Amino acid sequence: MDLSNQKVLHVKKGNQEFLQFKKLLQYSDTISHAYSLGINKSYRTFKANRTPLPVEEYKKNMENYKELCIANGVNYKKIIKANQAHTDNIEIIEQITNEKIDTPNPSDGLITDKKDIVLATTNADCILFLMFDPIKKVISNIHSGWKGTLQRISVKAVEKMKEEYGSNPRDIIVCICPSIRKCHFEVDKDVYEMFYNEFKNLKQIDEFIIKNDKKEKWYIDTVLINKIILKEIGILEENIEDSNICSVCNGEIVHSFRKEGPEYGLATAIISLK
């Protein structure tokens, strides 16, 4: 299966498969990036586990990170992953100081203007945003599940890039990795009410919250919500690059919690300044 489309390229290099955004490839002299694919191959070992991984499983995970980094010409020893907990916490990364790959504190976003640091996030239906300001040379990698969308973490990332580095939102490129889409993100009344209360003032509400008339369920388009609120703070329409890939619809090659169940795996998005 080839997931290439107008926005992304599906790359196969050795035993690695990953997506790259065509717009970011225009800046290949400045940044490297990738979103891992191939759940029946090595990335199957990115298995979600709320308890510490056994030593052998941890080694397999690190080997996969290493292979993905090498395939994209970045230093795997400089990788740092957000310690994701569905928060709106975003960390500025100045240097790699911890021995473990995850950030010491819970966070769902990473930002840096330092070269050779590899920012990483993982997902299995949640949205991952890769952001790049080509003027100020700043990158961010943001994890936003439905809780992150309710907390507007994508907007907070742009605001932090503006506050910390002087980025102009009009310059920032925002790339949206594969994630669950409206066709499969069906929720109960409690989650519907949270989204309605948070975003009821947006005039497009009827476009991103759809009632399932056959049962007491609603479909939520979290990708569209993020596009709307990002444009409200100044991100240009032409700078929002959506992969347009649903993780559930393509669950045979993209990790999906709803598709895989309790033993779901995790894909990885990386981005690094050269």
Explain how this protein is built.
The protein is α+β, with helices and mostly antiparallel strands and 274 residues long. The protein has a single domain (8-181, 239-273), classed as CNF1/YfiH-like putative cysteine hydrolases. 25% of the residues lie in helices and 29% in strands. The chain contains 8 helices and 16 strands. It has a 7-stranded mixed beta sheet with strand order 1-2-3-16-8-4-6. Strands 5-7-10-9-11-15 form a 6-stranded mixed beta sheet. A hairpin with a 4-residue loop joins strand 13 and strand 14 (217-220).
Topology of this protein?
Blueprint: E1 8-13, E2 16-21, H1 22-25, E3 31-37, H2 55-71, E4 79-83, E5 90-92, E6 102-106, E7 109-112, E8 118-123, E9 127-133, E10 138-144, H3 146-150, H4 153-165, E11 173-176, E12 186-187, H5 189-199, H6 205-208, E13 209-212, E14 217-220, H7 222-232, E15 240-242, H8 257-260, E16 267-273
Parallel strand pairs: 4-6, 4-8, 5-7, 11-15
Antiparallel strand pairs: 1-2, 2-3, 3-16, 7-10, 8-16, 9-10, 9-11, 12-14, 13-14
